[in-house]
Design brief:
single chain; alpha+beta; 4-stranded mixed β-sheet; 3-stranded antiparallel β-sheet; 21 helices; HD_domain; HD/PDEase_dom; hydrolase; HD_assoc_2; Phosphohydrolase
Length: about 400
């Protein structure tokens, strides 16, 4: 088998964002069918956000296909990019786009806070582990293929343009999740002109650039990301749901030395690819459903809150007097503060719409004379965004007062 082997006919899949997903190469079609890829159907794309935006039930699987489709289009519609990469490099990059999120656990990024293992690290282990289905498939085509894919995902491939297409400030990953998450949540915050961006992208001196005439569409894209973070991804009620899950694990850790619950132990064993494969949203919900009847009253209550959306109340930038008052009321009712209150601090520069801290992460603009500029030199909006003050935003969560009686 050769990496460049084509299917007898192009396969297509319907998609609400891109109309169709087109698969031409046999390797890519087989990647989609691997157990590790199919598992992504059982991982919510937006973690707990579907508890706020009721239609946000889409999966990491659909997002991965969408990222692939944008990459495929870039590799066929941007002439200077077509000239820059070989057919084999093109296929390896498309394969990387399909598997870029293969390391996500239950509820996506929330899982990382529980296991202290980043999804990119887990994805690398899955791709390189000889026992996984995806690894076995890849090495049938090329023994070095898993390493080539990982090098793109880790941004260390010798041809930097490959990583820029998939992992940069202007990449297929962000383009798809902004459009897809906006669509799925029924909001307009994440919308931008994808077609215009694709038409104005160029490769110059090995860098992915946007023509100066496309700067306004890039500004819209950057603001779409900013608005989606603060209106959707960091929605306080969605965070409240995530906090319930974190509190459940904190409670289990508090009693774990005296009592082990086998179902929860799966999250504490060394998370290798074989163990990880069994962890998805479905399994987590089965565990939590059963924990509603656990003999520990706090585990039982937290499980019930998760299953029935009994969220904590919250306030942004609370005064200390308010926090003290809430804590006193909870304490009088013998409600443990460590379980039923939580402070969350967000360092806002983590979610700034644009940064130039790393030169290789800049968005580059190609002017009419062929000179490359940083985006901030060509956009007054971006220049202003770079001057935004960095501050910490504090939220306080607690069990609703109405539930205390």
């Amino acid at each position: 088998m050769k990496i460049t082997d084509r299917l007898e006919e192009i396969k297509v899949m319907r998609d609400p964002i891109h109309s169709y997903i087109h698969i031409e190469y046999a390797l890519l079609w087989k990647i989609i069918d691997t157990p590790e890829m199919q598992r992504l159907r059982r991982i919510h794309q937006l973690g707990g956000n579907f508890q706020v935006y009721h239609t946000a039930e889409h999966s990491r699987f659909s997002h991965s296909l969408g990222v692939y489709e944008i990459v495929r289009r870039m590799l066929s519609e941007i002439p200077s990019l077509v000239q820059e990469v070989s057919e084999q490099e093109k296929i390896v990059l498309m394969a990387a786009s399909l598997v870029h999120d293969i390391g996500h656990g239950p509820f996506s990024h929330l899982f990382e806070r529980i296991t202290h293992k980043h999804h990119e690290t887990m994805g690398k282990e899955i791709l390189l582990d000889p026992s996984t289905g995806i690894h076995k498939l890849l090495v049938q085509y090329d023994q070095d293929l898993p390493d080539q894919i990982v090098s793109i995902l880790e941004r260390r491939h010798p041809k930097k343009i490959l990583s820029q297409v998939l992992c940069s400030q202007l990449d297929a990953d962000r383009m798809d999740y902004l459009l897809r998450d906006s669509y799925a949540t029924g909001t307009s915050y994440g919308k931008f002109d994808l077609e215009r961006i694709l038409r104005t992208l160029r490769v110059e001196d090995g860098l992915l650039c946007v023509k100066e005439s496309g700067v306004h569409s890039i500004e819209d894209y950057i603001m779409a990301r900013y608005e989606m973070y603060w209106q959707v991804y960091l929605h306080p009620d969605a965070k409240s749901y995530d906090i319930l899950i974190l509190k459940l694990f904190e409670r289990y850790e508090a009693i774990r030395s005296k009592r082990r619950i086998e179902a929860l132990e799966a999250f504490y064993r060394p998370i290798d690819p074989r163990t990880f494969f069994k962890l998805d949203d479905y399994r987590f919900y089965t565990i939590v459903h059963d924990l509603q009847e656990d003999r520990d009253p706090y585990l039982s209550d937290l499980a019930n809150r998760i299953m029935n959306r009994r969220l904590f109340d919250w306030v942004r930038e609370p005064k200390q007097e308010m926090i003290n008052s809430i804590q006193e009321k909870l304490t009088r009712r013998k409600i443990p503060l460590s379980i039923y209150t939580h402070e969350e601090r967000l360092l806002e520069d983590m979610y700034l719409p644009y940064t130039e801290r790393k030169k290789e992460e800049e968005i580059h603009v190609l002017d009419v004379c062929g000179k490359i500029w940083p985006l901030s030199a060509k956009s007054e909006i971006v220049k202003a965004l770079l001057g935004m003050e960095t501050k910490t935003c504090k939220y306080f969560y607690w069990q609703k007062i109405s539930e205390e009686s």
